[in-house]
Amino acid sequence: MAIRIPRAVAKSIGLEDGSPVEIAVDEETMVVRRVPSHELRDLIARITPENVHEEVFSHLTERERW
Fold first, then answer.
1. Which of 19, 59, 17, 64 is nearest to 39 (CA)?
2. Cβ count within 10 A of residue 12
3. Which pTM does this prediction carry?
4. Minimal CB count within 10 Å: which of 7, 44, 47, 61?
5. pLDDT at residue 65, as a whole number
């Protein structure tokens, strides 16, 4: 079986030929979703000031020393 995705839809979500996708089923609904890249350059590109956590040095574990 195969699913044909219109070019405009694929372009709007950044999907290209051969891109990995995941398929989820909920009752009678099927959702096809682009799998985010796990390449280091792509992960770094998604870092923003809003999603960076503060450094925490108050909880040392085992042999950690700062």
1. 19
2. 9
3. 0.50
4. 61
5. 64
